[in-house]
Amino acid sequence: MAEAYVQVTTTTDSRHEAAEIARSAVAERLAAAAQLVGPIASTYWWEGEIESAEEWMVVFKTTAERFEALAGRIAEQHSYDTPEIIATPVVAGSGDYLAWVREQTAEVTTDQV
């Protein structure tokens, strides 16, 4: 059951952008929850140079079925040319919490509105 769930991470250079991406993903039920972590210090290669930057990380809780839609939404809203969008499978977790994640990310049909 746990392999049906993922944690998805992205980083961005502003708390405001991170919060906007998090809020829209949750509002659209692409994620049950999103946590902002930061600021964090990032070091990475970019265009042949080692860069360092202060960033904000967003950690999304979602189902594997919703990953592609969530990744598309992150990419659409993100200001980076190549945003980090990484899904990590949830190997184990609280049954009640995972059931809540599934319930919160269920697609709403017109019958339910």
Automatic annotation (TrEMBL):
Cite the InterPro entries for this sequence.
Answer: Ion_tolerance_CutA, N-reg_PII-like_a/b, N-reg_PII/ATP_PRibTrfase_C
Q: What Pfam families does this protein map onto?
A: CutA1
Q: Please report which protein family the annotation says this sequence is part of.
A: Belongs to the CutA family.
Q: Do you know which PANTHER family this protein is assigned to?
A: DIVALENT CATION TOLERANCE CUTA-RELATED, FI09726P
Name of the protein: Divalent-cation tolerance protein CutA
